[in-house]
Amino acid sequence: MNRYINAAIALSITLSLAAPQAHAQHKKFMIKKGGSGAASESSTTTSTTTTSATTSTTKSATAKPADTDALPPPPKPKEKKPIKSVLGPTAIITPSGLQYKDVKVGTGASPQKGQVIWVHYTGWTQPDGKKFDSSVDRGVPFNFIIGYQQAIQGWDEGVSTMKVGGKRIFIVPPDLGYGAKGTNTVPPDTTLKYEITLLSIGPKMPKIDIPKPDAQKTALPGDESAIVPKPKGKPQ
Fold first, then answer.
1. String of DSSP letters for 101-151
2. Which of 184, 187, 206, 185 minimizes the C-alpha distance to 197?
3. Is the Cβ–Cβ distance between 100 and 171 less than 8 Å?
4. Rg (CA), the chain
5. Contacts of the segment 150-156: beta carbons below 8 A, 24+ positions apart
6. Per-residue pLDDT in tens (0 to 9) along the chain, 236 residues
7. What H or E segment, with its residue span, contains residue 32?
8. What kind and span of H or E run contains 6?
9. Contacts of 117 (CB under 8 A, 6+ apart)
């Protein structure tokens, strides 16, 4: 009997000693299990975020373009009104708006950019026809280097296609003349009319015939500065 009692006591002692160890092992197992679960949950969250980002990117890539019908149409460019020639049907109008007509076509060379040219000219404001300048009246020709803005833009463009000995009438719009600033003798935004004779090309002043004292100027159509000798004899 005692033997059985002693065996029961020994078993009880053994179980009491093993219980803490079993509890510790069970606690370790639960901690490990909990860590694996957290990692699994983190992995699931990351996967969900990646999937969401991928879905968002796919939606953005496949998004339909904005409805262009709702946008206002672009403004139409302003149409340039055709320039009416004031020099007659034979006049030439360049893309810049310069008008010219040859009174006399020269037989010499045409000037090239950078060359010195000598001209005689007379200028009138438009539409009043008031003379504001004339080298003819002064008796001294004017020179400038063509193509280097030493004269107004209309001169650079128009005289470059003349030939020595030629005479040409120009209608110069304000933007090719003195523009919005004007000068002492030309009001702002004024159209100008010029009659220009290309005398020569080169640095030396050309020899020109000075009109005789008995000559007078008459205003002929299209040739206002033409010089015509006075009629001889008594008027009838």
1. EEEE---SPPP-TT-EEEEEEEEEEETT--EEEEHHHHT--EEEETTTTSS
2. 206
3. yes
4. 51
5. 152/176, 152/177, 152/178, 153/96, 153/177, 154/98, 154/192, 154/194, 155/194, 155/196
6. 556 555 556 556 555 555 555 555 555 555 555 544 444 444 444 444 444 544 554 454 455 555 556 677 777 776 666 777 889 899 999 999 999 999 999 999 999 999 999 999 999 999 999 999 999 999 999 999 999 999 999 999 999 999 999 999 999 999 999 999 999 999 999 999 999 999 999 998 887 765 544 444 444 444 444 444 444 444 44
7. helix 2-61
8. helix 2-61
9. 111, 143, 144, 145, 146, 159, 198, 200, 201
**Residue 125 main-chain phi, psi, to 5 deg:** -80, 150
* 3-state SS assignment for residue 192: strand
The residue count of the chain comes to 236
What are 133's strand-pairing partners?
A: 123
In contact, 224 and 123? CB cutoff 8 Å: no
Q: Please enumerate in sequence order all residues whose Cβ is within 8 A of that of 12, keeping only pairs 6 or more positions apart, or say none.
A: none
* Measured distance CA(50)–CA(103) in Å, rounded: 84
Euclidean distance between CA atoms 169 and 193, whole angstroms: 7
Q: Coil, strand or helix: which one is 166?
A: coil
